[in-house]
Design goal:
Number of strands: 6
Radius of gyration: 15 Å
Strand content: 35-45%
Structural class: mainly beta
Strand order of the largest sheet: 1-2
Shape: flat
């Protein structure tokens, strides 16, 4: 899981042996009004990672639209 791009994304790659690898990119939680660009093409949000003791996991991303997000039955506001 990484950040820095300020936009959510994910990428999967299956290896020859059948194992799948993935990369998840977090959205941002920073202010969208910055002095060095008029309209940054960023998306606010966060990620939730669920995992088991066996090493299995799931990554869910929640993005805000116009300051609101709905995730796991709850509303969030920026």
């Amino acid at each position: 899981i990484t950040g820095h791009w300020h936009r959510p994304d994910r990428y999967y790659h299956r290896l020859v042996g059948g194992e799948t690898h993935g990369v998840w990119i977090n959205p941002c939680l920073c202010d969208l009004k910055v002095e060095y660009t008029a309209v940054p093409n960023w998306v606010q949000g966060f990620s939730l990672v669920e995992y088991t003791d066996s090493g299995r996991f799931n990554v869910s991303s929640c993005e805000f639209f116009n300051g609101h997000a709905f995730f796991l039955g709850r509303e969030y506001r920026v």
